[in-house]
Design goal:
- By secondary structure, the chain is mainly alpha-helical.
- Belongs to the binding-protein-dependent transport system permease family.
Length: about 325
């Protein structure tokens, strides 16, 4: 009798056996690694889907309606919003403002490449300089905007500096003169992002062996030739990425000009115009169509840029 009881107690419980079989620790290491990777990847995928892709799909749908953003009725009007935009040049006039930011993007890329090259090769305190240059990228857009509002005020910092060095004749109404306001806005963009580009290019240049640079110098190559024939080909991938981000950023400039000028005095960008049509004029359908056009432009620019870099690599 005692033996039968002991045998019954020693008999494994099928439920516990199933739990052990399905437990995470019982899985092979490779499967555990795959599951953990999928779980970690699911977080950004879910966030991107909820806060980026789904709103973008909804926006595409709104562009075919006359929705005002408030009422529950959304009448389907087909391509009317797109016809309205393409039939009147006034909707594309803010695109001319983007030219200033477009030029500024090339200025900041050029400055960043040169400074990164000087800092990466032959500079003892390179980490210190990288930290100093990168600092503006850490400052919030709102804070930067208020800093430069004060900087460009009549009689403030910039005017004082120009007067002190005998260049008082160059003093302008930096944020009121339509002829100079976009140059002021674009210069803020250069100041903010050039440090970020310097750090990115410096990281890319770290993969280039100093021995190659030294060998080129011994062979008689000057700094410009080293930069052109060794450094630029070595950082072509990151250069293409930063160029794409700068160009798309030029098309979608919003925070700084909106906070500093509200889009007034000829500083209105395409994004500011879109926001005003959506939330001030209550024409969400039309604004959504504008946003879709901007998205299409960014996709076209990206495609052209990829083709150019692909042909160069070939």
């Amino acid at each position: 009798m005692t033996t039968d009881i002991q045998k019954t107690e020693m008999k494994p419980n099928p439920v516990n056996k199933l739990k052990k079989k399905l437990s995470f620790s019982s899985l092979p290491y490779k499967k555990q690694k795959i599951i953990i990777s999928i779980l970690f990847l699911m977080v950004p995928v879910v966030l991107l889907t909820v806060f980026t892709y789904l709103p973008a799909i909804s926006m595409a749908g709104y562009s075919f309606t006359d929705w005002d953003g408030i009422s529950k009725t959304r009448n389907f009007i087909g391509l009317k919003n797109y016809k309205t935009i393409f039939s009147d040049i006034k909707y594309f006039e803010p695109m001319f403002v983007s030219i200033y930011y477009f030029i500024a993007s090339f200025v900041q890329i050029g400055l960043a490449v040169v400074v990164a090259y000087l800092v990466s090769f032959g500079c003892r305190a390179s980490n210190f300089f990288k930290s100093v240059y990168f600092f503006p990228s850490l400052i919030n857009s709102v804070a930067i905007s208020f800093i430069f509002i004060f900087f460009f005020q009549p009689g403030s910092t910039l005017d004082t500096v120009l007067n002190s060095i005998g260049l008082g004749g160059l003093v302008k109404y930096w944020l009121k003169d339509p002829n100079i306001i976009n140059v002021s806005m674009a210069s803020v963009s250069v100041w903010r992002y050039v440090g970020y580009n310097i750090v990115m290019f410096s990281a890319a240049m770290a993969s280039i062996s100093p021995d190659i640079i030294e060998a080129a110098r011994v062979d008689g190559a000057n700094k410009f030739q080293q930069l052109r024939h060794i450094v630029l080909p070595g950082i072509s991938t990151i250069l293409g990425l930063q160029l794409f981000l700068s160009i798309t950023g030029a098309l979608s400039a919003f925070e700084t000009p909106y906070i500093m000028t509200g889009g007034g005095n000829g500083s209105m960008t395409f994004i500011i115009q879109t926001v005003k049509y959506a939330f001030q004029n209550h024409r969400v359908g039309l604004a959504s169509a504008m946003a879709m056009i901007l998205l299409a432009m960014c996709i076209i620019i990206t495609t052209i840029q990829k083709l150019i870099f692909r042909n160069k690599e070939a």
